[in-house]
Design brief:
single chain; mainly alpha; Four Helix Bundle (Hemerythrin (Met), subunit A); Nonspecific Lipid-transfer Protein, Chain A; 3-stranded mixed beta sheet; 3 strands
């Protein structure tokens, strides 16, 4: 399975999970500071609809303020639309292969991590194929692009308890692969799902 096939699979599963959410969930806070569940869904849709030329045009139009551009895109997607409308918009993007500039693996990570920004905030992780999580973890462990994962996990050993994946040297951080991925991206709540002396190291970063 290539990376875009993984992305398609993750988007399709996320669509079904979102479709089952009660109306009250959509206005709940996500793990992204200042963003509700609805905002995160809008961001996922906007990212899946972006192309490199549009990205640079919108970035220029926002005065090269990335956060401002992202906020505008979320508002453009969510304004005047119902929760069901947003689910359908994402369903329409399941097979899309458009994205901002960046490695394709980063968009697999975006789909998984932002999906868990929603569902971990609401109480629990969703299931993901281990191969998808390993592909994302292998990408993040060597990249400081945007989220600084490589630097964040320096000096600790990450060990998955639901696969044979491990990385690094130093005090151990052990737990489910999905929680390791979330911790690599700086989601501090994921540290509650991990054990080992390295957890305290990550909490201090």
């Amino acid at each position: 399975m290539d990376t875009w096939q993984m992305i398609r699979s993750e988007r399709a599963a996320l669509v079904e999970a979102l479709a089952a959410l009660p109306p009250s969930a959509w206005d709940q806070p996500s793990l992204c500071p200042g963003w509700t569940v609805r905002d995160v869904v809008g961001h996922i849709i906007a990212t899946a609809s972006m192309t490199p030329p549009r990205f640079f045009g919108k970035l220029i139009g926002s005065g090269f303020r990335f956060d401002a551009m992202v906020g505008k895109e979320i508002a453009a997607v969510t304004s005047g639309r119902t929760d069901a409308d947003l689910v359908q918009l994402l369903r329409d993007r399941v097979d899309a292969r458009t994205a901002p500039p960046g490695p394709t693996l980063s968009w697999l990570g975006e789909t998984i991590v932002h999906g868990e920004d929603i569902f971990r905030a609401l109480g629990g992780y969703r299931d993901h194929p281990i191969a998808h999580l390993v592909a994302v973890a292998d990408f993040y462990k060597g990249s400081d692009m945007l989220i600084g994962a490589k630097s964040r996990i320096g000096g600790v050993t990450l060990r998955a308890t639901d696969s044979d994946w491990r990385h690094g040297t130093g005090p151990e951080v052990a737990g489910p692969m999905v929680a390791l991925v979330m911790a690599m991206t700086g989601r501090s709540v994921a540290l509650d799902d991990l054990t080992g002396d390295g957890v305290a190291v990550l909490r201090g970063r």
